[in-house]
Amino acid sequence: MSRSIPVGYALANLPRYTSYPTAPHFGPLEEATYRAWLGGIRPVDPLSLYLHIPFCASLCWYCGCTTAVTRNPDRIARYGAALAQEAALLAAALPAHAGVAAIHLGGGTPSTLGADGLRALFAALRTEFGLRPGAELAIELDPRVLTEEVVAALAEAGVTRASLGVQDIDPAVQRRIGRTQPEAMVARGIGWLRAAGIRAINLDLMYGLPGQTTAQVAATARFAAQVGADRVAVFGYAHVPWMKPHQNAIHMEQLPGALERLQQAEAAEQVLAAEGFEAIGLDHFARPADAMAVAAREGTLRRNFQGYTTDAAPVLLGLGASAIGGIEVAGYAQNEPNERRWVAAVQAGTLPVRRGRAVTAEDRLRRHCIERVMCDFALDLAALPPALVADVRPALAPLASDGLIDLAPETLRVTAAGRRHVRHVAAAFDAYLASGAARHSAAV
User: Fold this and answer.
1) Which residue ranges does the record assign to the Radical SAM core domain (predicted)?
2) Alpha-carbon distance 363 to 352, whole Å?
3) Which phi and psi (to 5°) does residue 191 adopt?
4) Could you give the CA distance from residue 218 to residue 215 in angstroms, rounded to a whole number?
5) What is the pLDDT of residues 369-384, one digit of tens each?
C-alpha cells in the first residue's frame, strides 16, 4: 500500500515525536525552575514515574539508549541507592497529588539491580509517592540475563507488565548486532513471568537491522504472536553513529535500503494482523482486549518518551541519569546524563536536572495536534484556532497531493497509504523543525 507514496518520504529523517518541542531543542534548566514547576502540581493530578537504569552486562551494537556496561556490584548498588534518594527528594518537593498511576523501569537493563535491589527500589517508591488502585508497574527485561529469582522479586513488588527485547530471532542477524538470544531463552523468560503472575507481556522487535530480510522480520513477528505476546512493538532501527559511536560496529553497507525497510515494516504488520493483533499508531500492535487497543479505539491513546501508552497522567517524573520527565502545563526536564555527576548531585540533596524546555500555550496546542495525528491518524481542524490552521496548510497541501492525507476544510485524516509516513504529517505542525542542527533517524 505504501509503495504508491514517493520514496523520498521514506528517505527523510524526522523526530519520533515522543515530545514537543523535541529533545534537541531543550536548553539549560535550573533546579529552581523545576521546583517551581513541581510546586504547581494540583491535588487532583496523578503522577507517572520513569526510572532509568543504564547498566548492561554487554553492549548491543544497535542500541540508541543511554547505557553503560558494568558488572561492578558496588557501582550498581550505589546507583540503586541514589534512585531511592532522588525519589525522596522529589517527594519532598511535591505538593499534595493524587498518587502514582504508572511506574516504568527502563534502561539499559533494570534487572541488573538484582532481586534485592529491585525489592528495595519498589518499596521506596511506594513509601515516597503512594500508588493509586490499579497502578501499572512495568519493567524492560533482557531475556539473556533474566533469572527466576529476579522474576520472583518483581512479582513480590507488584509488577504487572514486562517488556522483553527480542529484535530478531534469526541467529545470523543476532550476530551482526552483538546480541545472541535463542528463541527458547525468550520463551523460558515468558514462562517464568506468567508462572509468577506477571501476565501482561510486551515484545520489542526491530526491522532495518544489518543483513536482515523481509522474511526474517515476518518470522520474528510470527514468533512474537505464537509465544502469546499481548503487545508487540516493531521499531525501525535508527542508525545514528554520530550520537552513538558504538553503532559504527554495524556495517553501513549491510543495512537495508529505504524501500526494503518499508517492506519489512509492512511484512510485520501483515503477519500480526493475520494473528489477530490490531495496529496501534505507527509501530505498535495489541490484542483486541488489551488496554492499548481499547484506548486506540476510544481515542484516548497517548504518546510520551516511552512511545505509545495508555498512561494519561499529566505529570511524568524522570528519575535516574539522563531520565526525561514532563509536566503538561509547564515543560520538560531532563536529568544530568553523566552517572557520576548525577549521583553526586543526588547525594548533595539537589534535584539533578540539567536540561529542559518550558512550553508555551502555542507549544501545547501544537503538541496536541502532533499527538492526535500520531495516535488517531486524524485531527479535527475545526476545533483549532484558524490562525494555526492557516499556518500549517501550506505544509499539509503537498502531503495531500502525494496521498498521505485526506485534507478537508474542517478535518485531516491520514490515509491507509500514509500511515507508515505519519511522522511527516506530524512534522507539518512542528514550528521548530527547521531551526537548529538536530539530526534525526529515518522516518520509516
Assistant:
1) 41-278
2) 25
3) -60, -45
4) 5
5) 999 999 999 999 999 9
